[in-house]
UniProtKB/TrEMBL annotation:
<protein>
    <submittedName>
        <fullName>SDR family oxidoreductase</fullName>
    </submittedName>
</protein>
<dbReference type="InterPro" id="IPR002347">
    <property type="entry name" value="SDR_fam"/>
</dbReference>
<dbReference type="Pfam" id="PF00106">
    <property type="entry name" value="adh_short"/>
</dbReference>
<keyword id="KW-0560">Oxidoreductase</keyword>
<dbReference type="InterPro" id="IPR036291">
    <property type="entry name" value="NAD(P)-bd_dom_sf"/>
</dbReference>
<dbReference type="GO" id="GO:0016616">
    <property type="term" value="F:oxidoreductase activity, acting on the CH-OH group of donors, NAD or NADP as acceptor"/>
</dbReference>
<comment type="similarity">
    <text>Belongs to the short-chain dehydrogenases/reductases (SDR) family.</text>
</comment>
Amino acid sequence: MTTQRTAVVTGASSGIGEAAARTLAAAGYHVFVGARRLDRLEKLADEIGGTALELDVTDEDSVDAFTAVIPRVDVLVNNAGGAKGLAPIAEADLDDWQWMWETNVLGTLRITKALLPKLIESGDGLIVTITSVAALGPYDNGAGYTAAKHGQAMVHRTLRGELLGKPVRLTEIAPGAVETEFSLVRFHGDAEKAAKVYDGIDPLLADDIAEIIGFVASRPPHVNLDQIIVRPRDQGAVPGQFSRRS
Ligand code: 8X3
């Protein structure tokens, strides 16, 4: 078995996942990066000396194949997920809801369940799950996403109790607005609509979250940062509340 500390990052082909992989590699981890877009992953893996593996967290066989080849896991970053659509419940698109449930909730469950034995075996495992401020309460037109993020958060938070006594720490990071491909995916590729979300504010960047992950991973084994909520200064605690420059 390899002795180098090993990290696994899902949804690593862009945004927070990619930035987290770079941060953890710089901290000395061998990083297994997983996502569907293998070309981008391979470029990243080359740059950071990691391993690129195709992964679709909504597909049981893909998760099995992915987790089977990873020999050791010290850190797991559950980052795969996202939003699709922004619509009132009266106009809910069931396909969007299903996608959000599959990626955020069941995706996190599948990967975490499969890697738990290796995280425990490491003697000092860490699971970082990237939820969202959408895991903290409702917002109008966002129920598909808030429902999925609450579900994902519950998988993660429940494990904290279930793993008490085992050498695994759990940290939930709940970010507000981070400028990544998040809004592009939410608006089904509409770049103009996506750009408007960050118009007139200074949003968080993927690196801001990656630095927090690096900090969490570098704490000593007895320190468990349970939950970290992080927003841009321009975003208030009330959903949808932003201070925008005109
Ligand atoms: C996304 C959070 O604040 O951009 O997870 O809706 S926000």
